[in-house]
């Protein structure tokens, strides 16, 4: 839920949005297409030849900051140093009449890789290998120019074409860091800035440590996992838990979700190593290791079609006392989560992911009796230190494993402040089920 401050900021940014027809230098705005934390993105045309371009305009509330303006200009300077067919080109830059800086980039036809994954669930191994190779090639070119991306993610990879041959272009080098040593007040991208996207941030980024090209190797490992399974290695609704997972939890194995040689697990685990020194030294080495692990056929014989199935999910989270509690308390909570895991497995659910003090379990639930069984299992987990949520929706299954779909959007059907001792069931799982479930059970809207 947005705070009053966030709602006010949103209203201001809505008022600042450039309407269609706005003239920006030699360009005419056609439509707003996206909004990020720093800037808004517009599709526009160059007036002299109607060439389509993308214009990124810094938000007004940020434009007053000289530090942020410098970072914005650095983006243009960083990308203009790059010349690679798989990296978006910067064509121009300037400032609006109100002082907001903008930069103009080539317009890339296509859709974000995140949209491709949402539509398809996962990609066949040959496509994964091909895309990883393309992305690694672009990163190698950037690194050779002293630039790291620092925000590589599925949303920042634009793909075009159709399966089985997709073409990728990297965009949004807004968090790029010039590796060449600089001094003086102009160095605005310091290692004290833990910038990036939580779903793919390397541990050293989270800890605001010195970063190098291996942060992109880590993010490439996240993309490998996400393309192969349809979900990121760590997918948690709570930001603190997500960052904690990147810092301390071993990544799940790809082979737990999709067919693959065991060597693939080793490749991805090496890319997602907590210590940079333990990762492949470059994206090219990571891509080559993946190709070797899958063999000459690039995993062509390992394809498994995803299916969308109505399923029920149980989300269990252990709730420590305010202040965190003692080591004995935390050990007890770990034991409670492990006991819940055992009960869920015994009831026929599969563990989709588990991390620290929480886990998600899923089972097919087309029929009312299946949903009832899941509800009864959830009720049996009730305890003074556990919060339990139950929901039903479509999930994407590959080889019987849940790899994505609406059911995995946990934040949409759970409470970010779980209440221990409560079992909360959404209306969707209670539909057509006789409500003979004993307390404690609270019905909540999905």
Helix content: 25-40%
- Amino- and carboxy-terminal Cα gap: 14 Å
Unreliable parts: 180-194, 435-441
The count of domains is 3
Total count of helical runs of at least 4 residues? 13
CATH superfamily (homologous) name of the largest domain: Transferase(Phosphotransferase) domain 1
Sketch the major β-sheet: 7 strands, mixed
Structural class: alpha+beta
Classify the oligomer: single chain
Looking at CATH, which topology of the largest domain would you report?
A: Transferase(Phosphotransferase), domain 1
Gross morphology is globular
Q: In the CATH hierarchy, what is the architecture of the largest domain at level 2?
A: Orthogonal Bundle
Strand content: 15-25%
How many strands?
Answer: 18
**CATH C-level category of the largest domain:** Mainly Alpha
State mean pLDDT (0 to 100 scale): 82
In short:
33% of the residues lie in helices and 24% in strands. The protein has helices spanning 4-16, 60-63, 66-80, 113-120, 125-144, 203-206, 214-229, 239-248, 262-271, 283-294, 327-346, 368-380, 427-430; strands at 23-24, 27-35, 39-46, 51-58, 90-95, 101-106, 111-112, 147-148, 157-162, 165-170, 177-178, 307-318, 350-355, 358-364, 386-398, 401-404, 423-426, 442-444.
Features of this protein?
alpha+beta; Transferase(Phosphotransferase), domain 1; about 450 residues; globular; Alpha-Beta Plaits; Phosphorylase Kinase, domain 1
